Structures
1.
Amino acid sequence: DDDAEGDTSVVTKTKPKTKRPPMYKVMLLNDDYTPMEFVVLVLEKFFGMNHAQSVEIMLTVHKKGLAVVGVFAFEIAETKVAQVMESARRNQHPLQCTMEKE
Ligand code: TYC
């Protein structure tokens, strides 16, 4: 929209803002005790990765300390984090999964 302001020639643009929801990075954190194979299974089960992708991401976390495993809308990200944390708890692994606004 062009909104003419008063009787001078100043014109301001009003953006047609279609608002997208904020997205959230879901991250996996490294630790010294969670077995590599468990992390690989978690990535396959909850993030729909194939085996090769899962191994690659797991090794990135292992070497760098953390990695983004996916970016989702808030509710989805929350569910992924809860699923990973519950699976880690059930299996008595200290694996940590967190989310952060992009
Ligand atoms: N560092 C763990 C080990 O050596 C493996 C591991 C990878 C743990 C990724 C957590 O998010 C993680 N067994």
2.
Amino acid sequence: MSHLRGIFIVIEGLDKAGKSTQCARLVANIRDKLNKPVVQMRFPDRTTPTGKMINDYLKGDTEVDDHTIHLLFSANRWEAAPRIRELLLNGTSVVVDRYYWSGIVYSLAKERDDLTFKWARGCDIGLPMPDRCFFLDLDPTLARQRGGGYGEERYEKEAVQLKVREKFEFVFKKEDHYHVTPLNANMPVEQMEKMLLKWAESYFQQATLSGWKID
Ligand code: DGP
Ligand code: NA
Ligand code: NA
């Protein structure tokens, strides 16, 4: 008897690129159209103790040193890693809204000489690797115009978003490019939804337990 492990999908992008919508729809489609068990997660998970500290920082209620907050975001992912592994091994797929790529780029956007790519990447080495990361790419000028503009949180400013986008491009060129598929997020929601579902469907078709491992 063989059973397939779940697939691990990450959706990355700038603020307001449509990640949350696409995650929710992909999860519903995997469950209802492909009839596979699936769980949706997001980082930062603001419900845990590290998540509460991160939330206070994002709201501007606290000031936290740049390295320290980077480590907290990373810890917020690490504390979920055993659950992600367990779900995948038990055959449940996992769709995640943001992952370590966000971790790197939001820190690199601060442009500190002592906060390097190597340091930022290092903290998340060893986390479960997704089968695929979809990067919903959207010009920050267009993103800003979406649904009421940016909110009030720390990074939700056009100048920051432009920097973050530049850093995403830099990071995807640098490493893990084979895990990442950039998608132009300036397309109708339904079209993007269909593309992601199609990808998941064909991935399930190709997959066999023997060919899959978690690294
Ligand atoms: P979200 O809940 O997806 O809107 O994310 C909240 C904000 O936190 C968003 O501006 C992106 C930022 N963010 C997400 N992950 C990380 C991370 O690992 N490090 C840093 N510095 N910022 C992050
Ligand atoms: Na946000
Ligand atoms: Na979001």
3.
Amino acid sequence: MTQLLRLDGLNRAFGERQALKDVTFDVAPGRLTGFVGANGAGKTTTMRIILGVLAADSGTVTWGGAPLTRADRRRFGYMPEERGLYPKMTIREQLTYFGRLHGLDAGAVARNITSLLDRLGIGERADEQLEKLSLGNQQRAQIAAALVHQPQLLVLDEPFSGLDPIAVDTVVAVLREQTARGVPVLFSSHQLDVVERLCDDLVIIGDGAILTAGRRDELRAAYALPRYEIRVD
Ligand code: ATP
């Protein structure tokens, strides 16, 4: 079941460097939440804490009001910044592996893979090795890998970097299918214009601290953010 993800007062230091300072925001069911900040602002650190890859020094992450468990996290989908697929395997082999790892039966995995890859526009590449694909198609495969087990929460670290505008629209359409099912989706970017064009909710982080968070339209009005011509919504 989809729930509200709440980050409350997260702190994390690396040596002397305080990477996160009291990071607090929500990712709501059915909302596409854009997480924007310059390189080194703390986006990846925050996402790793959500996924349990990294521990916070203090603060909590709750899912539907209860502390996150390992079982919750297994039902989440994550696309890390450092892309983790095996170059020698085909897309189908890798997605099958991930789907089975999450406990889906072979039939369900096969069906999910076919429909996901078709929607992402790489259906015809399913049986090609990753290393033979263009970077854009490799990235679509990474996004498919985060989605193959039909996650209840989706966290994507820089999913649009390096994608051409058509690929961005394709990926956004797939993410919109997730939010339409009620899934909360959090994606990061260092480009405010990209995030602001695509998201429902906006979280801006600077030097480890949340500068502002809320509904995009309200923030637009409050901060007179520039309006962009191209709209996906
Ligand atoms: P980028 O887009 O460049 O990844 P980011 O917003 O995701 O930026 P983080 O990767 O979260 O930022 O980094 C936040 C700060 O924490 C940076 O100063 C970074 O150097 C530092 N940091 C992150 N991970 C580590 C680590 N494992 N060891 C030491 N410092 C780290």
4.
Amino acid sequence: DQLPPHVIVLFGATGDLSRRKLLPGLAHLALSALAPDIEVIGTSLEDLSDEAFQGFANQALSEFSHRPLTKEQWEQFAGKLHYVPTSAGAEGLAAAVARSEERLGGNVPMLHYMSVPPVAAPAVINTLREAKLVENSRVVMEKPFGTDLASAIRLNDQVHETFREDQIFRIDHFLGKEAAQNILAFRFGNGLFEPIWNRQFIDHIQIDIPEKLGLDRRASFYEATGAFKDMIVTHLFQVLAFVAMEPPTALEPRAISEEKNKVFRSMLPIDTRNVVRGQYTGYRDEDGVARDSDTETFIALKVGIDNWRWAGVPFYLRTGKRMAEGQRIISIAFKEAPKSMFPPGSGVGQQGPDHLTFDLADESKVSLSFYGKRPGPGMKLDKLSMQFSTQETDRAADVLEAYERLIMDAMRDDHTLFTTAEGIESLWERSAPLLADPPPVKMYPPGSWGPNAIHQLIAPHAWRLPF
Ligand code: BG6
């Protein structure tokens, strides 16, 4: 499984994502047997030396790496880290890449990781073109992929002027989570669930990703983006497609993208009456936030997929900042038994419908909750659960962090877990009514589950969280 040598150019190297995820992920790949022969060239607006960048990376790793490095490991990784400021221009970057290639023994493939906002993307692409770093290269692009249909098309066109679609990897790190991939394994690796995976047996679906986290250092990004663009149009819709898609003809990128894109095309345009936008009290007092900001820090919505399998089955999505708990669950609620033969008070149905739940947390769990008999006399029923957790297997140490997995896949030229220009454009199109006329934000107290209106939105069902 070992990857061939690569030069990785990391644009936005001193940003938040780089600190939290990319540098720790690259360290793990470089120090494991997975990708030992990489050189990383960091680049950003800041004027740093190699040593200063290594210091930045050291700090990032000690704060965010799940696997603490020994001194020897750190020295080994630090030796692979170099830095070129944006001010060095295309020439400076080309020279740094050439030096890295020499250290790796000649002409090697490159991966350009664009951890930059969309406005900066055209400049990065120009630099790569001027530096002649386009051939033998792949680019990883970070969301947001535009802010509406027109800007997404514009961005895609700009990138396509330099890179072919097969060189572009639009990353959605939720698809790199072990549990998201387990949705595919679970659905298509078993005969048990697929026959009931439709409107005849499924009552509704919840994709619920509350976060305790606030803005952290990202106020200006967040203020301009909001929860819908930051989370729903990217991560939650992508996960929804894994849940809702038809079986692909093969587990290969083109077949999967085709099926996902069909889901996006079948999504009903968002009806703003089915949307609750929220803002936590105190958001407007945060640094970098407008005093009259209308940015949503919370959103819940009901969407429908108008196809044969899902007609009439509501999908409820919710996510927000500064909420009561941090959770990432997908919950499939099954229909009730057609007739209850249990006496009143037996407990059946009292704790909601039976559910299948995928937990997208790092431990990755799948659980099935159902009614079963309470031990003892009489016939009382309790909600019971069967559960699988990767933590409980002897393979727990093999779990790759989402970014590690996806960076590896991009180096391997495997598009399976990446999104396509076409899919993204359909999602923006479906979102147009909400973007054009967003309902006003409702306030919610930090540490809560969102504004009260979330209960009306899901009625007659109930949110599965809190457990
Ligand atoms: C990012 C969003 O893409 O995903 C963040 O920009 C969010 O706002 C994060 O906190 C959540 O990712 P994870 O992997 O921590 O669930």
